[in-house]
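Lab notebook page, bench 4
Experiment: in silico fold of construct C2
Operator: M.H.
Input chain length: 203 residues
Purpose: comparison with the prior construct
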Amino acid sequence: MAYLIALTGASGAIYGLRLAGELLSRGDDVEVIISPSGFLILKEELGLECAPKDAASKIRAYLEGQGRALKGRLGITAHDDMSASVASGSSLLKAMIICPCSMGTLARVASGVSGNLIERAADCMLKEKRPLLLVPRETPLSSIHLQNMLRLSRAGAVILPAMPAFYHKPSTIDDMVDFMAGKILDMLGVENSLYKRWKKEAE
């Protein structure tokens, strides 16, 4: 079984790629869906210009360029491929993580509206009661945003906002990104040492 990671048009594409890199480094298989706006964010924030047809090779090269040995399989599924296996509740996934998650995607998932494969796959995870994590990156939050998050939380999803902490004294952007990736992995039950835990003595 693979992990499914979806990148949407919210700021914070680096979080999703860092998460994918960590899972692939462990030997886990990762399937990625990127929305059209997600591709724009990859280019704008990371200088990673790619299209669905070459996204797998370019993302893999990007991650390997950071010194990672990727043992798992990285696949890319088009956001509009509603015939893909993950569009069905019979598809077995370890978990789905929408990271970063735009407020539009969050609202449509909360409403049960499936206009693309990201939303349909998330709907399947909810109805099959399988792990679904959403990592929104927005501020401030309106009452509508908060209501949608509450609806999803009550439906069984985990809302894990991209809110880096500072108790581990980050000195670089990578430290802050690692903190968020580590928190996501914690919620997935994946052991990691991406960040220094509160009051944990150095070993």
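Observations: The chain has seven helices and six strands. The chain has a mean pLDDT of 95.
Next step: discuss at group meeting.
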